[in-house]
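1st attempt posting a full record on here, be nice pls
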Amino acid sequence: DLRGVTIAVQGLGDVGLPLVEELSDRGATLLVADLDSGKVGGVVERFGAVPVPPDEITTTECDVFAPCALGAVVNARSVFRTPIVAGSANNVFATPDDAERAHHAGITVVPDYIINAGGALAVTMMGEGVTDRTELMKRVERIGGRVAEILAEASASDVPPVVAAQRRVDRLLAERGSPRYR
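the predicted structure (as C-alpha coordinates):
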Protein backbone atom coordinates (compact mmCIF):
# COMPACT_ATOMS: atom_id res chain seq x y z
CA ASP A 1 0.00 0.00 0.00
CA LEU A 2 1.68 3.20 -1.19
CA ARG A 3 -1.13 5.65 -0.47
CA GLY A 4 0.40 8.87 0.79
CA VAL A 5 3.79 8.15 -0.80
CA THR A 6 4.95 10.47 -3.57
CA ILE A 7 7.26 8.92 -6.15
CA ALA A 8 8.96 10.84 -8.94
CA VAL A 9 9.68 8.66 -11.98
CA GLN A 10 12.24 9.88 -14.51
CA GLY A 11 11.79 8.10 -17.83
CA LEU A 12 8.65 6.41 -19.13
CA GLY A 13 10.12 3.76 -21.38
CA ASP A 14 10.21 -0.03 -21.15
CA VAL A 15 10.91 0.03 -17.41
CA GLY A 16 9.52 3.36 -16.23
CA LEU A 17 6.05 2.84 -17.69
CA PRO A 18 5.47 -0.59 -16.08
CA LEU A 19 6.80 0.88 -12.83
CA VAL A 20 4.24 3.70 -13.05
CA GLU A 21 1.50 1.10 -13.63
CA GLU A 22 2.56 -0.92 -10.57
CA LEU A 23 2.93 2.16 -8.36
CA SER A 24 -0.44 3.49 -9.48
CA ASP A 25 -2.07 0.15 -8.67
CA ARG A 26 -0.60 0.43 -5.17
CA GLY A 27 -1.93 3.97 -4.66
CA ALA A 28 1.22 6.09 -4.95
CA THR A 29 1.08 9.74 -5.93
CA LEU A 30 3.11 9.95 -9.13
CA LEU A 31 5.29 12.72 -10.52
CA VAL A 32 6.61 11.92 -13.99
CA ALA A 33 9.11 13.25 -16.49
CA ASP A 34 10.33 12.14 -19.90
CA LEU A 35 11.88 13.89 -22.87
CA ASP A 36 8.93 12.60 -24.94
CA SER A 37 6.00 14.85 -24.01
CA GLY A 38 3.59 12.40 -25.68
CA LYS A 39 4.58 9.68 -23.19
CA VAL A 40 4.11 12.12 -20.32
CA GLY A 41 0.68 13.16 -21.59
CA GLY A 42 -0.45 9.55 -21.88
CA VAL A 43 0.70 8.73 -18.35
CA VAL A 44 -0.92 11.88 -16.94
CA GLU A 45 -4.21 10.99 -18.64
CA ARG A 46 -4.15 7.28 -17.81
CA PHE A 47 -2.85 7.38 -14.24
CA GLY A 48 -3.52 10.92 -13.02
CA ALA A 49 0.21 11.54 -12.64
CA VAL A 50 1.58 15.05 -12.26
CA PRO A 51 3.92 16.11 -15.09
CA VAL A 52 7.28 17.61 -14.15
CA PRO A 53 9.69 19.20 -16.64
CA PRO A 54 12.63 16.84 -17.29
CA ASP A 55 15.17 19.38 -16.05
CA GLU A 56 13.31 19.73 -12.72
CA ILE A 57 12.52 16.11 -11.84
CA THR A 58 15.70 15.51 -9.80
CA THR A 59 15.03 18.57 -7.65
CA THR A 60 11.32 17.96 -7.12
CA GLU A 61 10.30 17.18 -3.56
CA CYS A 62 9.16 13.55 -3.20
CA ASP A 63 9.44 10.53 -0.95
CA VAL A 64 11.27 8.44 -3.55
CA PHE A 65 13.05 9.46 -6.74
CA ALA A 66 13.08 6.63 -9.32
CA PRO A 67 15.53 7.26 -12.17
CA CYS A 68 14.50 4.94 -15.00
CA ALA A 69 16.27 6.63 -17.89
CA LEU A 70 19.61 8.32 -17.53
CA GLY A 71 22.60 7.12 -15.56
CA ALA A 72 24.92 9.38 -13.56
CA VAL A 73 21.99 11.30 -12.04
CA VAL A 74 23.72 11.17 -8.66
CA ASN A 75 26.71 13.41 -9.18
CA ALA A 76 28.57 16.37 -7.66
CA ARG A 77 25.92 18.78 -9.02
CA SER A 78 22.88 16.76 -7.86
CA VAL A 79 20.41 18.47 -5.59
CA PHE A 80 17.80 16.04 -4.37
CA ARG A 81 14.77 16.80 -2.25
CA THR A 82 14.12 13.17 -1.40
CA PRO A 83 15.45 10.76 1.19
CA ILE A 84 15.50 7.80 -1.23
CA VAL A 85 16.79 7.24 -4.76
CA ALA A 86 15.67 3.86 -6.08
CA GLY A 87 15.31 3.26 -9.80
CA SER A 88 16.41 1.07 -12.66
CA ALA A 89 18.71 3.46 -14.50
CA ASN A 90 22.10 1.83 -14.83
CA ASN A 91 25.08 3.41 -13.10
CA VAL A 92 23.20 6.06 -11.13
CA PHE A 93 26.48 7.38 -9.72
CA ALA A 94 28.69 9.49 -11.96
CA THR A 95 31.71 8.54 -9.83
CA PRO A 96 32.35 6.33 -6.78
CA ASP A 97 32.70 9.49 -4.67
CA ASP A 98 29.07 10.31 -5.43
CA ALA A 99 27.93 7.29 -3.38
CA GLU A 100 29.75 8.71 -0.36
CA ARG A 101 28.41 12.19 -1.04
CA ALA A 102 24.81 10.97 -1.15
CA HIS A 103 25.36 8.86 1.96
CA HIS A 104 26.71 11.82 3.95
CA ALA A 105 23.79 13.94 2.74
CA GLY A 106 21.40 11.39 4.26
CA ILE A 107 20.11 10.10 0.92
CA THR A 108 19.69 6.35 0.63
CA VAL A 109 20.52 5.19 -2.87
CA VAL A 110 19.41 1.61 -3.51
CA PRO A 111 21.92 -0.05 -5.86
CA ASP A 112 20.57 -0.22 -9.40
CA TYR A 113 21.81 -3.73 -10.00
CA ILE A 114 19.78 -5.00 -7.03
CA ILE A 115 16.66 -3.25 -8.29
CA ASN A 116 17.27 -4.55 -11.81
CA ALA A 117 17.36 -8.14 -10.56
CA GLY A 118 13.62 -8.28 -11.28
CA GLY A 119 14.26 -7.66 -14.97
CA ALA A 120 16.96 -10.33 -15.00
CA LEU A 121 14.53 -12.75 -13.33
CA ALA A 122 11.85 -12.00 -15.93
CA VAL A 123 14.24 -12.58 -18.84
CA THR A 124 15.53 -15.80 -17.28
CA MET A 125 12.03 -17.10 -16.59
CA MET A 126 10.84 -16.27 -20.11
CA GLY A 127 13.91 -18.07 -21.47
CA GLU A 128 12.86 -21.09 -19.42
CA GLY A 129 9.33 -20.86 -20.86
CA VAL A 130 7.73 -19.61 -17.63
CA THR A 131 5.16 -16.91 -18.42
CA ASP A 132 3.13 -16.98 -15.19
CA ARG A 133 3.12 -13.41 -13.83
CA THR A 134 2.17 -14.65 -10.36
CA GLU A 135 5.29 -16.83 -10.20
CA LEU A 136 7.44 -13.99 -11.48
CA MET A 137 6.05 -11.55 -8.91
CA LYS A 138 6.58 -14.11 -6.13
CA ARG A 139 10.27 -14.24 -7.04
CA VAL A 140 10.51 -10.47 -7.53
CA GLU A 141 9.01 -9.88 -4.06
CA ARG A 142 12.09 -11.59 -2.57
CA ILE A 143 14.22 -8.74 -3.85
CA GLY A 144 12.64 -6.49 -1.21
CA GLY A 145 14.05 -8.71 1.53
CA ARG A 146 17.50 -8.55 -0.04
CA VAL A 147 17.26 -4.77 -0.26
CA ALA A 148 16.24 -4.60 3.42
CA GLU A 149 19.24 -6.75 4.39
CA ILE A 150 21.63 -4.59 2.37
CA LEU A 151 20.19 -1.37 3.83
CA ALA A 152 20.47 -2.79 7.36
CA GLU A 153 24.10 -3.77 6.75
CA ALA A 154 24.86 -0.36 5.28
CA SER A 155 23.28 1.36 8.27
CA ALA A 156 25.11 -0.84 10.80
CA SER A 157 28.44 -0.22 9.04
CA ASP A 158 27.72 3.44 8.23
CA VAL A 159 28.55 2.91 4.55
CA PRO A 160 26.58 3.64 1.38
CA PRO A 161 24.24 0.81 0.33
CA VAL A 162 26.29 0.20 -2.82
CA VAL A 163 29.32 -0.58 -0.61
CA ALA A 164 27.26 -2.99 1.52
CA ALA A 165 25.89 -4.61 -1.65
CA GLN A 166 29.37 -5.08 -3.08
CA ARG A 167 30.56 -6.62 0.18
CA ARG A 168 27.64 -9.06 -0.02
CA VAL A 169 28.51 -9.97 -3.62
CA ASP A 170 32.15 -10.48 -2.66
CA ARG A 171 31.15 -12.78 0.23
CA LEU A 172 28.84 -14.84 -1.99
CA LEU A 173 31.46 -15.19 -4.70
CA ALA A 174 34.07 -16.23 -2.14
CA GLU A 175 31.70 -18.82 -0.63
CA ARG A 176 30.86 -20.28 -4.03
CA GLY A 177 34.44 -20.52 -5.20
CA SER A 178 34.39 -17.89 -7.92
CA PRO A 179 37.51 -17.96 -10.12
CA ARG A 180 38.22 -14.45 -8.82
CA TYR A 181 38.81 -15.88 -5.33
CA ARG A 182 40.69 -19.10 -6.12
